[in-house]
Design goal:
By secondary structure, this protein is α/β, with parallel strands linked by helices. The chain has one domain: Alpha-Beta Complex (Spore Coat Polysaccharide Biosynthesis Protein SpsA, Chain A). The chain has twelve helices and ten strands.
Length: 265
Amino acid sequence: MNMSQPKMTAIVLAGQRGDEDELARHAGASCKAFVVIDGKPMLSRVLATLSSSPSIETIFLSGPSKDKLKDQSEINELLRSGEISWLPPRSSPSTSAYEALRVMPPEQRVLLTTADHPLLSVDIIDEFCTKGAEQDADLVIGFARFALVQDEFPEMKKTVLRFSDGEFCGCNLFAFMTPASRDAANFWRRTEAQRKNPFRVIGALGWLNVLKYFFGALTLEDALDALSRKLGMRVRAVLLPYADAAVDVDSVADYKAVQERFLRR
């Protein structure tokens, strides 16, 4: 990290998905954030990594609910010490992000990530924050090339955005760099239900872009330019050279793949 670069506030989304969460039930956890991988809950891993990053100054935890937290002694100690602050989860990740951002001063740079990101590392965070700060952007989104992820996790099912200049996976890393970027949370709320359907997400940017995407004529930069026009802000990408950056544990199969990753290490 460039030492002259302002540090960022981190928001970790950790809301639960209800009592019928298959992954939490499989792992015997009260909610997905507390699924234990290699001896440590996923959320604890993410918080420890953020705390170790020189790019991060303050950490806010959005969820889980207080009743889910009561048995998590390590996280409760962090809350009591003031090392992290808790915010109530909302009805969806996008609404939680929107409400959490409203707590921050508009000029504060904010890194948004999720609790189901146990392979997140200090190197990933610092590269994303450093490269994000170098962009002329209001909002920065992290991506990794699908080929990189597939090489490391060949059995893992991933949502893939296929553009004319390559195939990409999202990394659940977003940097809100300016006050204008906060409006992006509203757009996310409108498109959240379609996040697993690339055509419908691209469709929010206009049907011409859908056709370009369908026929392989749309680049990632084209899509971000269209999103920039839609939102009235500058949206840019950071391509991360880490397969781990694109791994979120969203299913039992993901859980097993990440467990195996830790065993190989």
